[in-house]
Specification:
alpha/beta; 7-stranded parallel beta sheet; 5-stranded parallel beta sheet; 9 helices; binds flavin-adenine dinucleotide
């Protein structure tokens, strides 16, 4: 078992792509600052962890956003995200520096990386969290135990999870949950480089093609016809777009699709997205969570396609098709074309 007294500070994984830092990293640093401020007697620092290639010059930006220290792992093998090399580097880094807690954005990358590292180091991980607090009773005894809260049962309930028996306490946190603190360019901090030891430099997985996500260039609130993509349609977004094109409509989506990185937030319908009221809302592979329906249930006509006959979306639909979107959408494209000719 880990000797807890050796573990210290709150570490934040600062995700970047081509040197562009994902905002969620700064949101977590901002929140980590608030957390360490609740336990001043423990003298905890906020440490940013930056992995990539040619990214050393980004460390000061991380400090300006609130980190006391940044550990940079700059290596050619980390140029593009690879589960294998990122997990290898991070596991070694955690074993060396011994963070008391380790926070990662619940982005597609973070959701891939954090559980793998947690499994390797045998640490507890709370996934998809929306709130973090330090248990003040434990803090009085010199233990910075995190109470990490996450939604469950489709967001209808919240559960608080505590990783008492392992270190670091790991969590992935949804983007846009925590506010960004103001940037202070005059902040100073320590920058340290860490060199991992590679057991192999042969990649297990190769990237064949990078598909650009749909960029936010339309206002979904103004569209008369909306074709909504849910997690069930993530594998056939080209078909969803084809249906929208044939209908003269616009593609929008559920929050799951935004969180999984397929579409921009400005396409999101729902409680934390946009409220829409088109003549037609065609929901493809959307379960019908209350938070989604809150943004589209006033549409004049709702038609849904879902392979689960019990899906909640059917309860607010004027018409529903039980089936696989991969099969139904091509038929729909053909029949719209036929109807138009
Ligand atoms: P899932 O719930 O994963 O559902 C996927 C559906 O696709 C399932 O019903 C499945 O049967 C179906 N499916 C799978 N494969 C296929 C296939 N091949 N063919 C046909 N059907 C298939 N969500 C929003 O959308 N907007 C918001 O603004 C929003 N705000 C939120 C705010 C809070 C505070 C919280 C806690 C949550 C919020 N959510 C929001 C998230 C919401 O609770 C749901 O998690 C989300 O809407 C689920 O998206 P989904 O239906 O695409 O994915």
């Amino acid at each position: 078992m880990a000797k807890f007294e050796e573990y210290k500070d709150i570490y934040v994984f600062v995700e970047q792509e081509n040197g562009n830092i994902a905002e969620v990293g700064y949101e977590l640093i901002s929140e980590a600052r608030k957390l360490v401020a609740t336990i001043p007697a423990m003298g905890y620092k906020v440490v940013g962890v930056l992995l990539g290639n040619g990214i050393k010059d980004k460390a000061q930006e991380v400090i300006a956003h609130g980190a006391d220290k940044v550990i940079v792992v700059d290596d050619e093998l980390l140029k593009d995200y690879s589960t294998q090399f990122y997990a290898d580097a991070l596991t070694q880094l955690i074993n060396k520096y011994k963070p008391d807690s380790f926070l990662t954005g619940a982005t597609p990358l973070g959701r891939d990386l954090a559980p793998r590292v947690a499994a390797r180091i045998n640490a507890g991980l709370t996934a998809d969290a929306t709130k973090i607090e330090v248990d003040q009773e434990e803090a009085a005894n010199g233990v910075a135990l995190l109470d990490v809260t996450r939604p469950t049962f489709g967001g209808n309930l919240f559960g608080t999870i505590v990783c008492k028996n392992t270190r670091p306490q790991m969590a992935t946190i949804r983007p846009k949950v925590f506010e960004l603190a103001p940037v202070d360019e005059s902040r100073t901090g320590e920058v340290e480089e860490f060199k991992p030891t590679w057991t192999t430099t042969e990649p297990e997985v190769f990237v064949e093609k990078v598909i650009e996500k749909v960029k936010g260039d339309v206002d979904i609130t103004k569209a008369d016809i909306l074709v909504g993509a849910g997690r069930g349609a993530e594998g056939c977004l080209d078909l969803v777009q084809q249906v929208a094109d044939e209908l003269g409509g616009v593609v929008c989506c559920s929050r799951a699709v935004v969180e999984d990185g397929y579409m921009d937030k400005d396409r999101q319908v729902g409680q934390t997205g946009k409220t829409v009221r088109p003549s037609l809302y065609l929901a493809c592979g959307i379960s019908g969570a209350v938070q989604h329906c809150a943004g589209m249930d006033k549409s004049d006509m709702i038609i849904s396609i879902n392979r689960d006959p019990q899906a909640e979306i059917f309860s607010i639909s004027n018409m529903g098709f039980v089936g696989d979107v991969n099969k139904v959408l091509p038929l729909l494209v053909e029949s719209i074309k036929a109807a138009k000719s």
